[in-house]
Amino acid sequence: MEFAVEVKDLCKTFSSGWFRKRKKEALKGIDLIVPVGAMWGILGPNGAGKTTLLSILSNLLTPEQGEVRILGLDFRTNGNEIRKRINLSSGHANFLWSMSVQENLKYYAMLYGLSGKSLNSKIETVMDMFSLKDFARVRFEELSTGTKQKLSLAKALINEPELLFLDEPTVGLDPDVTNRIRDIIKYLHQEKKITILITTHNMKEAEFLCEEVAFIINGSIKAKGSPQDLKEKLHLGDTILIDFKGLIPAAALKAMDGIYDIQIHNSSCKITVDNHRKRLAQILEFFTTQNIMMSHIHIKESDLEDVFISFTR
Amino acid sequence: MKTFLSLLLDESIKTKAFMFKNWIMAKRNLFTLFEILFWPSISFLSVGLLAEFVNLQPRMRAFILVGVVSMSTVQVCQLDVAYALLYDVWSKALKHGFIAPVGTRHLLMGSLFVGILRGGLVFITLMAASYIIFDFNFTSPGILAIGLFVLGLFLSASMIGILVSILVLTIGNRAEVAAWSLVSLMLLICGIYYPVSILPYWIVVFAKLLPITYFLEYYRGFYGFEPTFSHVLLKGYTAVIAYLFLEVYLMKVALKRAKRKGILLKLSE
Ligand SMILES: Nc1ncnc2c1ncn2[C@@H]1O[C@H](COP(=O)(O)OP(=O)(O)OP(=O)(O)O)[C@@H](O)[C@H]1O
Ligand SMILES: [Mg+2]
Fold first, then answer.
1. Which of A74, A281, A212, A109 is nearest to B96 (CA)?
2. pTM attached to this predicted model
């Protein structure tokens, strides 16, 4: 099996200041293996080290320690070969201010060695994909945040990368543009078979896009797995809220399979279960056999946001 | 053979990319027009008129005009080389170029090409203006001499431009001051308006280290000024080529350091 990214014991410390050296350990021994064809998320609070990690993987930053292999190659010896096959797009990216959208794309396409017909058709394709045609002649400095972001993604596809790093690709965008960009990212992964590593603060986005996520906190990976696995590992479960009349034998209820917790307040009962799909029927049956009247039932599935909060708290 | 040709094509496209960027940015920004029209004209006219006013003999006027034309040419040409990185730094877009599979050679050659175009334009304009306004024939030393002189100036200009780029990669934004001040400083030492022989001996030591000194002496030799140094052309070219090799190496070192320190990222946000 070939890996898109292999990282072993990666450490990065920033030092700043002229005389009194301030040191900041941004990454402390990261191990990460991402298979080819994967779509993984890197999650974590502000300052956790996500951008630092993606910058090292795209060779904008060199670590003091650790091994990095990209698409099976080592950056120290195969930098140019790797650069041809990867790309990066980040949120709030900037481009040459007085060049138009088309000129910016042309410039970066040329940096990847494209010219003539193949250059023009590539620019057409990416502009189509992100509906940038209307802005082709507009200078970068005159674009809205959303369009700048689309340009950043279009630029990242100009060399048809096998491996794509996306650093908060939907930050600061309206819901409509956000959704469209998410759909395109999904398409790139599913149809174009691009391996994608994405960072985001939006847990819905991570859950929608990513097969697996890794939580980085304070420069270390604290957990890795599919969103479902992580929820189960953390015993976050789902919540079933029932408004009722009568008396609940709490101990008997708690003793049932898959129930993590029960809280009763007056006429309302909050039950946390591992998976509501598996447990709802048996809970309802329990209430019926105990002759408890139910007036309202509400189910809330736990999501990655709960995972995030429980990790960072 | 085929791979060699495709390699050559690849190299040329990547070099052209940097030409394209400098060209478009120069076309779009008014200040770049000022650089090639306004400032050279101002210094040319004020110095030329001053020479007229103090009634310099033609030989002395030749000395001064050769100086002022060279200074403007070098200044404009070196700016383009420095702009190769500075445009990206000002746009906060530095990192995108370094993600792409290009080398410093593409960046330097591409921007130098535009620098030669713009610097050449300044040189030709001022050469014509010298003839029309001050009745001074810049071309009398002959085409070969002009060619060797201007090539020396362009190489010296790229030397300064690369130095600015190295500074940008080392100290970031703050290096942009160097783009405008380095030339003035060098021209003070190289003897733009006076022969280096009148400088204090310890400054002459620095003058000897700068290739422009030799190129100026070379060209002024045609107007009856005995060079202070021997073998000026050989010394000038040897020095400038040696510096360029050293600088290309230093630029690679600066880039490595910038990647260690996170400077590429800081200059992109
Ligand atoms: N160039 C730099 N110089 C010094 N310190 C830096 C530099 N870049 C990042 N850091 C520090 O390293 C740590 C990790 O930063 P990083 O940008 O990787 O976090 P992040 O997870 O991307 O955060 P966010 O979610 O806010 O984007 C932070 O404490 C940051 O201050
Ligand atoms: Mg970040």
1. A109
2. 0.90
Taking the Cβ of residue B169 and every Cβ of chain A, the question of whether any pair is shorter than 8 Å is answered with: no
Q: Does B102 touch chain A (CB under 8 A)?
A: yes
Looking up tokens 């946001």 gives A305
Q: Which two tokens stand for residue A36?
A: 């080819």
Please, what are the domains in chain A?
3-225 (3.40.50.300), 237-302 (3.30.70.100)
Q: In chain B, which residues have their Cβ closer than 8 Å to the Cβ of A103?
A: 20, 24
- Cβ–ligand 1 distance for B259 under 6 Å, the answer no
Q: What share of chain A is helix, strand, coil (3-state, %, to 5)?
A: 40, 30, 30
The number of CA neighbours under 13 Å toward the Cβ of A171 is 14
Structure tokens at B182: 């380095």
Q: Is B260 in the pocket of ligand 1 (CB under 6 A)?
A: no
Q: With contact defined as beta carbons under 8 Å apart, do A12 and A26 qualify?
A: yes
* Residue-level pLDDT, tens digit, chain B, 269 residues: 678 998 999 999 999 999 999 999 998 888 888 888 888 999 999 999 998 899 888 888 999 999 999 999 999 999 999 999 999 999 999 999 999 999 999 999 999 999 999 999 999 999 999 999 999 999 999 999 999 999 999 999 999 999 999 999 999 888 888 888 888 888 789 888 888 888 899 999 999 999 999 999 999 999 988 888 889 999 999 999 999 999 999 999 999 999 999 999 999 98
Query: Which protein residue has the closest C-alpha to ligand 1 atom 3?
Result: A14
